[in-house]
Amino acid sequence: MEMPEIPETPAKADKAGKSAKSAASGQAEKPAQPVQDQAPAQVETAIRPEQGQGQSADQKFLAAVRREIDWVDEEILSLLNKRARISKRVGRLKAGSGDPVFKPTREKKLLDRLTAMNPGPLPNEHLRAIYREIMSSSRSLQRPQKIVYLGPEGTFSHLAAMEYLGHSVEYLPKANFEAVFAAVSRGEAELGVIPLENSLEGSVGQSLDLFHRHDVFIQAELFCRIRHALLSKAMRMEDVSVVYSHPQPLAQCAQWLHANLPNAALIPLESTAAAARTVVDKPGAAAVGQSRLAEMHGLSVLASGIEDAPDNWTRFCIIAASRLADGQPDKTSILFTTPDKPGALAAVLATLAEAGINMSKLESRPLKSEKWKYVFFADLECDLYAEDNKKALALLRERCHTLRLLGSYPSGPKLDLNRE
């Protein structure tokens, strides 16, 4: 009579089953104890025989650490897909209610909450970058988005858009700012990215003027640090006789260019990316632009950090065809004109002062339709649509000749476009 097999204990059988299942599927097993809490000698027992042959204790320890990373990666993958499934459900609900996909106030609160909870060692900067891509994917799963920007590929507007909105969207370059505003106002793209002002050179006048001509709203802002490099096919600076770039970078690097290339002709073009493309076939030419353009166009970086002032920032805005209605934004931008009478502008400013509303920017632009008439662009540190500001808004409408609210939105993050 054959002796019956003695079954394994439930715990051993379960462990064996899980190990076999993991091995069959190629999945990593969850470590019983985190490897970082073990010494190399302890880890030797955790290495499978075929992995441990001919390996030192350090090699075995590294193998165990890598298996733990593999297991963590699989857990992350599972959670990312779980989040993606939830995002798709959110997308179906938004489609039924007409709710927009892009919710910058909600996204800002999420990033602020996660960074406040972050115990490290992952730096908050890295955490924010990771989650911007996760949120970009979530938006795309809910509803694919088209984003327009001043092209060609590689402009500061393009880099700023990717840094803030992520890579899971369709980016469409446009030939000029007018085309960006027109595409958004006509509904050809959900969002547009435009530069509004630079910390050294001031406002981008063309952008301000286009707000007066197109029915679009600001939904978000971001501040990007700008660094410039000299890019060329030439291998030596002495061989450069002409420099191309957008007028603003040429102005921002004027002292450096005068000191290092005093005899070079400076030629303005519509963008830094266009300048980089132009010099590809011109050995004696160079472009001023972001260093990433060198890799994109096969150029050499002859010099980096050539801007005259190192603390150089550009403020970009995300524009859309509709006003943002999302949470509690903390900034509002307005366009207004005043009656042609003494004290008209002072009355508008007094209205804001009486309501305790701080104005962080005020700029006048000439009206194209009337000689010597001006329209004012202003940034207010408040949500002008809020119930608390209804009285101030009513007084503004009364004291302005025309008043247009360009939208309320969250204060923007500071981003670095210079990571290689």
From TrEMBL:
Molecular-function GO terms, alphabetical: chorismate mutase activity; prephenate dehydratase activity
Region (Disordered): 1-58
Keywords: Amino-acid biosynthesis, Aromatic amino acid biosynthesis, Cytoplasm, Isomerase, Lyase, Multifunctional enzyme, Phenylalanine biosynthesis
EC number: 4.2.1.51, 5.4.99.5
GO CC terms, sorted: cytoplasm
Record-linked InterPro entries: ACT-like_dom_sf, ACT_dom, Chor_mutase/pphenate_deHydtase, Chorismate_II_sf, CM_dom_sf, CM_II_prokaryot, G/b/e-P-prot_chorismate_mutase, Preph_deHydtase
Annotated site residues (Essential for prephenate dehydratase activity) in this chain: 314
Pathway: Amino-acid biosynthesis; L-phenylalanine biosynthesis; phenylpyruvate from prephenate: step 1/1; Metabolic intermediate biosynthesis; prephenate biosynthesis; prephenate from chorismate: step 1/1
Annotated ACT domain residues: 333-410
Intracellular or extracellular location(s): Cytoplasm
Keyword Metal-binding among UniProt keywords: no
Catalytic reaction annotation: chorismate = prephenate; prephenate + H(+) = 3-phenylpyruvate + CO2 + H2O
GO BP: chorismate metabolic process; L-phenylalanine biosynthetic process
Record domain Prephenate dehydratase: where: 146-321
Annotated ranges, domain Chorismate mutase: 56-146
Any Pfam family: PDT
Entries under NCBIfam families matching the protein: CM_P2, PRK11898.1
Described purpose of this protein according to its UniProt entry: Catalyzes the Claisen rearrangement of chorismate to prephenate and the decarboxylation/dehydration of prephenate to phenylpyruvate.
Protein name: Bifunctional chorismate mutase/prephenate dehydratase
The organism of origin for this protein: Desulfocurvibacter africanus PCS
Organism lineage string: Bacteria, Pseudomonadati, Thermodesulfobacteriota, Desulfovibrionia, Desulfovibrionales
